[in-house]
Amino acid sequence: VFDHVVRAPEDPILGVTVAYNKDQSPIKLNLGVGAYRTEEGKPLVLNVVRQAEQTLVNDKSRVKEYLPIVGLAEFNKQSAKLIFGSDSPAIQENRVTTVQCLSGTGSLRVGGEFLAWHYLERTIYIPVPTWGNHPKVFTLAGLSVKTYRYYDPATRGLDFQGMLEDLNSAPAGAIVLLHACAHNPTGVDPTLEQWEQIRQLIRLKGLLPFFDSAYQGFASGSLDSDAQSVRIFVADGGECLVAQSYAKNMGLYGERVGALSIVCKNADVAGRVESQLKLVIRPMYSNPPIHGASIVAMILRDRDMYNEWTIELKGMADRIISMRHQLFEALLARGTPGDWSHIIKQIGMFTFTGLNSEQVAFMTREYHIYMTSDGRISMAGLSSTTVPHLADAIHAAVTR
Ligand code: PMP
C-alpha cells in the first residue's frame, strides 16, 4: 500500500550532518548544525546541568508522573522571568501566560496553531532569509506565510529600509516573526535604536510580534542584553508572543525544553488564552517531558546555580567570539580577496560568509568541510586547530 511513496529529500540543515557522517576523511569538519562544541570539538554538557541532574537523581521523592498539559509550573514562571525580566510589569499584572513546549520548534508550532485558531489575520511575515524550519512550521500550523526583506547581501548587513517598507505594506494585524537576537542564519541584528523604530511601526500598524528567542545569552554573553528587543515591546503594554528554547543556552538540545509565552492585555484574557492553549497541546502530545524542565527550573531558581550558569554561558559565547577573530585574522594573513569584517561584526552562533553554493560545494569536495549551501557556518563547530584549514578552504574557494 505504500509503493507510491517517494523518497523525501534530506532536511537541508540536518542533512549536512548525514553527509558529514558518511565522509571517511580524517580532516573532515562539520560546520553545519548549530550545536556548541568545545575547543576539542566535543559536545558540552554544562557543569551546572550535571549538578542539577545529580540533585534530581538523588531526590528519591521525585516520581515520573505526568506533568499538567501546560508543563511544570515553576519552569514556566522562571522562563517568563528570564525573558521578560524579573521586574516585568506584565508578569506582575498576571497578563502573561507561559506554557512549557517541546523546545523552540514546539513553542513556535503551538503558538502558530493557537493563532490559526483564534487570531483573525492569519498571515505571518518572516524575514528573508530565516531559519529554514520557520516557513514549514507556520504553514503546517495553518498560517499563510509571507516574507519581509531583512538581509542585504551587498552590505552583508541589515536592509533596514527594506524591512520597514515591507512591514509598512503588510495588512493591519498581520503577524511578524522576529528573531529576538542572533538572527539565524545571518548573524545580523537590528541596533537598539532600530528595534525602537521597528516597534513603533509594528504598534502603529497594529501588527502582532512573534519573537523567536533561541539564543538568549549566546549573542552577547548577557541574558539581559539579549532580551532587550523583547522587553521594549512588552514595556509598551501591547501584546506579543515569545518562543523560548533552552537548546543552545543551557546545552539541552535533545531534552527538548522550551516555552511559549503570550503577553495579553489583561489577566482575564491571559487566563482564557491559556485555556485554549491546552486545547491545542492536548491532541498534539498531551503534556511535555519532565526531566529537562526540572533541570532548567532548578538552575533558574537557585541563585548559586544561576550564577554558575551565566559564567558557563559567557564562556561559550566568548569562545565563539574568539573564533570569529581567529578566522578573520587567518583570512587577513592569507590576503584573501574581499572584505571579511562581517565575520567579526555578525552576532551569535553563525557567520553568513557570503560564499555561494558552488563555493560551498567546492569546499566540501576538496576540503571535507560541511556547511549549509547558503554559506552559513557554525562558529561553535570551529577551534583554534581547525581555523587554518577553514581559512585555506575559503581562500581557495574565492581565488579559484
Ligand atoms: N529558532 C531558531 C532561529 C533556531 O536557530 C532554532 C534552532 N536551530 C530553533 C528556533 C529551534 O530549536 P529547538 O527546537 O532545538 O529549540
From TrEMBL:
GO cellular component annotations of the record: mitochondrion
Top-level lineage group: Eukaryota
InterPro entries: Aminotransferase_I/II_large, Asp_trans, NHTrfase_class1_PyrdxlP-BS, PyrdxlP-dep_Trfase, PyrdxlP-dep_Trfase_major, PyrdxlP-dep_Trfase_small
One Pfam family, short name: Aminotran_1_2
Example of a GO MF term: L-aspartate:2-oxoglutarate aminotransferase activity
Matching PROSITE patterns: AA_TRANSFER_CLASS_1
A GO BP entry: amino acid metabolic process
Entry protein name: Aspartate aminotransferase, cytoplasmic-like
Organism: Punica granatum
Lineage of the species this protein comes from: Eukaryota, Viridiplantae, Streptophyta, Embryophyta, Tracheophyta
Gene responsible for this protein: LOC116192188
